[in-house]
Amino acid sequence: MFVYYDHRNTFTSVHKQEHSTQKKLVADRYTKSYVTKPIVADMIQQHAGVLMKKFQQQPNIDVYKWLHYYAIDTITNHVYGAYGTRTLEDEAQRDLVYDLSGVKHRSRLYFTFYFKDLVLLAENIKHFYRWIRNQPTGFHVRGSRLNKYGLESVKGVCKDPDIHADSTAGKLYSVIPGNPNRIAAECMDHLVAGVDTTGDAMCILMWRISTPEYRHVQEKLFLELLSVDGEFDPRSGTAPITALDKLPYLEAVIMEGLRWRAPVPMSLFRMCPPGGRIVEGHHIPGGTTVSCQAYSLHRIPQVFPDPDKYDPERWLTQDKDQLSEMKAHFWPFSSGARTCLGHK
Length: 344
Ligand code: HEM
What we know:
Low-confidence stretches: none
Number of strands: 4
Strand content: under 5%
Number of domains: 2
Radius of gyration: 22 Å
Largest sheet: 2 strands, antiparallel
Bound molecules: protoporphyrin IX containing FE
Strand order of the largest sheet: 1-4
Mean pLDDT: 92
């Protein structure tokens, strides 16, 4: 799973050294100072402007889909430069979002994760049957559209590296020039890692604060946004990231969304190093697979009282000890060496 073009990427590197070498190649493209540079921040704001326009033009809209179009456009423009998608504007490109975020693909990922052997068996039978009848499988067709897009975009970047120097693919070209497949493998992982997580996080948060019992959150947020009124671009209805970044209530609303419904809530696995380790007094033998999950950490009532309640106010507490406990248990992006590359 998550190995593309026959190359391992940062996420799928197993060994510590291999992982850290791979991650260092791209880490600078995801620091806060980099993503708030005009070349990135303006691009994000521009896509947000297109999304806002759609929302204004069409009062009844499938928010899930449109937020995922926004996510794929911003991420692929960062990763592949001018080869980034324009799904918000170009209907023909939206198949890529279906490939990635459509319900069939997502169910398949879920089953592959939890019932790998069963899924492989079923798929081999299906492939065999289709092979005899000379038909490609549905999944193969969907998967290959994304694969094709990723590889062709990287090849385009490699032909004109100077123009795309700011993108992730451009950066990778400057350090590992003769290997488009390896560059494409890393970039595809950023696309896959970034789109559903970002789209889902925005979608569930929008739904939550749109329900009548959370009207007060919207009102408070609106008042806070008025404090940067002068920074809003009246044509697009958007403000620069640097202005929005200073708003504490907005930050609390987002953090609470990520806590309450973490986009990656499930167990994240690690292998215990040779020799084993002592964890909380228990000896874990080397080679043991261990895991931790945001879902449980975010529901410890001593840290997050009434944990199932969406309550942005909890992040505004004046109790410094409580706040630092909450921050220590806030795990939507995991932590340590394997922490999310895109979390800034
Ligand atoms: C709300 C949005 C996001 C959430 C909740 C999220 C969550 C996570 C989590 C939990 C992990 C750790 C997996 C593990 O420890 O095994 C991770 C890793 C990763 N994420 Fe994200 N992510 C988000 C957005 C993004 C974006 C926008 C990108 C890049 C474009 C990205 C790229 C990555 C990469 C490359 C890794 C692998 C890092 C490594 O293995 O060292 N993520 N993400």
